[in-house]
């Protein structure tokens, strides 16, 4: 029914006679069958190219273990940083994930770490305090290009920002500053869609980022550069941002772990574009990592002591007391039908839980059918922006210029060329003018969200975990998302509901593409997810090297 959504209110569709609904559902499925078939044919004309295999075993050491080895002088920081610089140089021609480089400064910082380690006595108090005060001493990491840090000014794929002179970098991300204070070393920033406004990681400044498991396919967005680089062993961990799935979609497509925190639980200062006011109720800025042990390790450092205490992050979780629930098919009317791969991912976890006598309960919520409009109504109710601020971002504050999204899209399609990405322009135009909700519709869907939120709060409480698909499919071919632009509803519904989520990789399917799931907890129960994610990694193996 995706074709009708711009023209007919979703609620009205489900008040039609059943025979009409069935026919519309048939057309809906037929549309996606045709889209999938066309892109499968296009894919077949392009040879699959694998990224180079890992040759340096240093790239396989988890961050917490690497930090220990540096402290114990088993490896040097320079060796580790150099290994990641070389790996990025080796794989970036394939995946194009790196935006802005910090290699020279990173290698200099690593040398300083090694010089310190040469002179500090193992019997000194300074050495004893290293693990506590500098838990990331000498360990490299990466940063999404939209996340502010002292080393870089965010470009975020906006041509005007690359050309502009009036760019100032204020209020850096607090979590990144804590990583640096803990001894971490920034290697680079990673690519995003233009202004983070698409689930296809492409822009006119840095180009398109490719999936490390199949470069013909998308990484997802908007933290696609982070997903690709971490998934290809070009980085151990990094920070992304998420307002509708921008951490979890790339994490799922690229086979890594991605964490979306409970809204307001962790500071989101230091992002471009800014998401202020009530939008912090749906926005997250948090870590992504190859290994779940690292995800918890670096998340703990990323947070302030106050934030850790608020979330009871260090409190032990008793797995035996946890209750489990699952949804293997949301039945969203706006998205592609869920694939067998993604259903199977949920079912394998359910089977595993059955085997250990946890017996998860299958849930169904009628409100979920309206997932996209629930998310959109939530965004509209939390935001008063009408496109003016987007225009200012796209022009780098030049009030004499105005970006016409439809005109820029036409320039693309007619071969005239544009400074703006086609998918981003179409997404912005569609969001602003086509998928419009009037005040009455906003109220209806926001009220629906509140009711659904109350139901889930009651079910999940402080001991429940919900297992759901990460996406309706594994990583799709490039550009397919233009024709299935609302598939992010699988993730955005949990932004609207304000629940913490971790995306967890399970295994590679028959095409050697990652299959992942989302695990969801009650508000402020983030610590439960890290416990279950660890169990999932132990059972299914977690990240797999692309091959």
Automatic annotation (TrEMBL):
Family matches, as InterPro entries: Amidase_CS (IPR020556), Amidase_dom (IPR023631), AS_sf (IPR036928), FAAH2 (IPR052739)
The active-site annotation reads 144, 222, 246
CC terms in the record's Gene Ontology section: endomembrane system
Q: Which Pfam families match?
A: Amidase (PF01425)
Location of the Amidase domain: 80-529
Answer whether the UniProt record assigns the keyword Transcription regulation to this protein. Answer: no
Q: Family assignment?
A: Belongs to the amidase family.
Query: What is the name of this protein?
Result: Amidase domain-containing protein
């Amino acid at each position: 029914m995706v074709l009708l959504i711009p023209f007919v209110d979703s609620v009205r569709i489900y008040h039609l006679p059943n025979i009409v609904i069935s026919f519309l559902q048939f057309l809906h499925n037929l549309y996606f069958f045709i889209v999938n078939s066309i892109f499968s044919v296009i894919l077949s004309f392009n040879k699959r190219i694998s990224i180079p295999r890992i040759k340096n075993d240093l790239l396989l050491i988890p961050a917490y273990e690497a930090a220990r080895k540096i402290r114990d002088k088993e490896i040097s920081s320079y060796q580790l940083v150099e290994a990641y610089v070389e790996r990025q140089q080796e794989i970036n021609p394939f995946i194009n994930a790196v935006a802005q480089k910090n290699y020279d400064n990173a290698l200099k910082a690593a040398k300083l770490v090694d010089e310190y380690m040469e002179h500090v006595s193992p019997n000194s108090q300074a050495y004893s305090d290293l693990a506590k005060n500098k838990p990331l001493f000498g360990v490299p990491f990466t940063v999404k290009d939209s996340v502010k840090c002292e080393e870089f000014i965010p470009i975020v794929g906006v041509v005007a920002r690359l050309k502009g002179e009036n760019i100032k970098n204020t209020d850096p991300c607090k979590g990144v500053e804590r990583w640096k204070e803990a001894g971490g070393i920034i290697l680079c920033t990673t690519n995003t869609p233009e202004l983070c406004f698409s689930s296809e990681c492409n822009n006119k400044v840095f180009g398109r980022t490719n999936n490390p498991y199949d470069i013909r396919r998308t990484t997802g967005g908007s933290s696609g550069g982070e997903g690709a680089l971490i998934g290809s062993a070009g980085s151990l961990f990094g920070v992304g941002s998420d307002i509708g799935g921008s951490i979890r979609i790339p994490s799922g497509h690229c086979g890594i772990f991605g964490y979306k925190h409970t809204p307001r639980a962790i500071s989101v200062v230091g992002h471009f574009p800014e998401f202020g006011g009530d939008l912090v109720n749906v926005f997250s800025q948090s870590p992504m990592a190859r290994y779940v042990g690292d995800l918890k390790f670096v998340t703990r450092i990323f947070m302030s002591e106050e934030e850790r205490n608020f979330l009871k992050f260090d409190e032990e979780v008793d797995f035996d007391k946890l209750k489990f629930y699952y949804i293997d098919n949301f039945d969203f009317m706006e998205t592609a039908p869920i694939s067998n791969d993604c259903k199977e991912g949920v079912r394998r976890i359910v089977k595993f839980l059955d085997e250990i006598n946890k017996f998860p309960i299958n849930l169904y919520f009628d409100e979920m059918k309206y997932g996209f409009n629930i998310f959109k109504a939530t965004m509209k109710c939390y935001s008063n922006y009408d496109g003016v601020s987007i225009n200012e971002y796209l022009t780098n504050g030049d009030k004499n210029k105005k970006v016409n999204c439809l005109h820029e899209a036409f320039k693309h399609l007619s071969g005239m060329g544009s400074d703006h990405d086609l998918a981003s322009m179409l997404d912005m135009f569609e969001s602003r003018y086509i998928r419009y909700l009037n005040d009455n519709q906003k109220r209806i869907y926001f009220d629906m969200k509140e009711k659904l939120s109350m139901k889930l709060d009651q079910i999940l409480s402080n001991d429940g975990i919900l297992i759901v698909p990460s996406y309706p499919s594994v990583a799709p071919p490039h550009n397919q998302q233009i024709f299935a632009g609302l598939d992010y509803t699988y993730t955005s519904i949990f932004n609207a509901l304000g629940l913490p989520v971790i995306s967890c990789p399970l295994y590679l399917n028959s095409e050697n593409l990652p299959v992942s799931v989302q695990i969801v907890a009650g508000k402020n129960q983030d610590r439960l997810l890290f416990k279950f994610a660890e169990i999932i990694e132990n059972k299914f193996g977690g990240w797999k090297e692309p091959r």
